[in-house]
Amino acid sequence: MRKLLNEISDKWTILVLTACDDIEGVRFNEIKRRVGAISPKTLSATLRQLERNGIVERRVIDRSVLAVEYRITSFGRTLSEPLGVLLRWAEMNFFQILASQQSYDGSLAGEAQGRS
Amino acid sequence: MRKLLNEISDKWTILVLTACDDIEGVRFNEIKRRVGAISPKTLSATLRQLERNGIVERRVIDRSVLAVEYRITSFGRTLSEPLGVLLRWAEMNFFQILASQQSYDGSLAGEAQGRS
DNA sequence: CTGCATCCTGCGCGATACTG
DNA sequence: CAGTATCGCGCAGGATGCAG
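Output (structure tokens, whole complex):
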């Protein structure tokens, strides 16, 4: 568990993995868009780590126009399922979590704009 | 999901939560022992955050000898279940993960002692 | 035993610019 | 488009000491 945590318990990995969990391969910038405010450096590092762990696969589509896609592996899918359970839990209970602290300023920072 | 990650995707929270997931309440130092090489400061901070989020409960057993126990709440249990799924996944696939990188030196460093 | 205060460090990660 | 190189910084978290 420690080892797993060392691999995925950072700020972005789970989100990136979720973004890659598509039937189709997903392009670099598409992942970027889906995930949100991630820097290319971090995304690149995260993807390489996921690749090393056999969770996603990198595939060059077209060398001339530089097109690359990432696709979750079957092994990755076995991980994304438990993660999906967690995601659904988060969706059901997120209000409970933010009810207690309010101190989150957010990387998204889209929903708390009402205060002048 | 971002919010959930902000709460639990640090180095220790999930481990601490797992350590608290007992039928009985668990004492501070007992958690420390179960979790491993966590500093009291970090453990304390982690526990307070879990408490704020209603995941664990703090209860003073004895004021004179300073005995405190932490117990997972029913809400916390709903979270520990998905986490348990993840844990089981980790147990089944940890070899796959460490097969790819070998670069983990370990906070526990207890299982690799066989090599002279 | 159960913490809190303090000091200190690494590194995770963001911003930006550059390349093929 | 898909990255890599560089710089800088905030903060998680380790170590240590103290206290009720």
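Residues 27-29, 40-41, 43-44, 65-68 of chain B lie near DNA strand C (CB under 10 Å from a C1').
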